[in-house]
Amino acid sequence: MTSLKKQLLVFTAPSGAGKTTIVKYLLEKYNQFAFSVSATTRGKRSNEVDGKDYYFISQDEFKVNIQANAFAEWEEVYANQFYGTLKSEVERLVEEGKCVLFDIDVKGALRLKSLYRDRCHVVFVQPPSLEVLILRLKNRNTESTTTLKKRVDKASLELTFANKFDQILINDNIEDAFKEADQIAQTILEH
Ligand code: 5GP
What we know:
alpha/beta; 7 helices
């Protein structure tokens, strides 16, 4: 849809930085946005819905999609846990005239940027510090000690990539982060 400034708005960040909360806020507030539902091989959490939060698929199915070149990007985000953006999902939503919102990891966001270039705007959500990030992950109570360590190790590396993106949003206080997200949304959706 040509009247949108950008067709794709990508939020990326280390796990626990708050990007999912920001993406959900924008989805509820602006009906011009639609969420790009990723495919994943990780297990479904009790609060998640298949087809809404993710397409939960098997590793075999994931591999078939890789071979069919069906992914705009995919990543083994954690050992044996694959996540990917389906090209068909992006195209379907763009054809509906939506601005497509993404919640994906840092490497995946870099891939999307190099594939879709000027069609997309990528925002890196940065926690105020690594210590705050660790605390948020612990409070979320979704991780075992092992998966928590994996996420923290990955986050330390990802924080060094912040400057590669179009914009950085520091999520210190969620209300301020929402205000900044509103400004981004309004700019992107401006006709
Ligand atoms: P979670 O397991 O907490 O839902 O997600 C783990 C990480 O994978 C998060 O950083 C999330 O943004 C990322 N992720 C979700 N979907 C995709 C995707 O399609 N591609 C990539 N590269 N990362 C994704």
